[in-house]
Design goal:
147 residues, 2 strands, two-stranded antiparallel sheet, 4 helices
Length: 147
């Protein structure tokens, strides 16, 4: 009788441990996928916001606003630091890294930011006129916008 109770207790403990371990493993992978999904979404949305705002600000030499934008975007929990280097080293800024992280805990992501004057001008022209203007060649748009 005592031997039968011991076997039953051992079987229940082992089966309970296996079931809880499987649930823990399942929860781990679901949480892992959810957090990496949040990471990808937040990093891509930060890159999209900065790629929309920074080219105009750098083109206009408004570096104080660039620094403020970078510092505000660097407060995200997924961002270790942000570095912006303008072509020909006209401007370079690196936000302060977050404390407590070592070099092997983050992955480098590089997002090129390109200034396109023709897109900016066509948005401005289309929003300010009542009728849609005829499309102009890209060179004349850039020349009239920059000149």
């Amino acid at each position: 009788m005592f031997l039968m109770r011991t076997k039953l207790a051992v079987i229940l403990v082992v089966s309970g441990t296996l079931i809880l371990s499987l649930f823990g493993l399942f929860n781990y992978f679901k949480t892992h996928d959810r957090l990496y999904g949040e990471l990808e979404y937040e990093v891509s949305s930060i890159a999209q916001r900065l790629s929309f705002r920074l080219p105009d600000q750098i083109w206009n030499y408004d570096f104080d606003t660039v620094v403020n934008d970078l510092e505000s975007e660097a407060t995200s929990r997924f961002v270790y630091r942000i570095e912006v280097i303008a072509r020909e080293d006209n401007f370079r800024h690196i936000t302060a890294p977050k404390d407590g992280l070592t070099d092997n805990e983050f992955h480098l992501r590089i997002f090129p930011i390109v200034y396109d004057a023709s897109i900016r001008l066509s948005k401005w022209v289309n929003s300010s006129s009542t009728k849609t203007p005829e499309p102009l060649p890209t060179r004349s748009l850039q020349k009239s916008y920059l000149g």
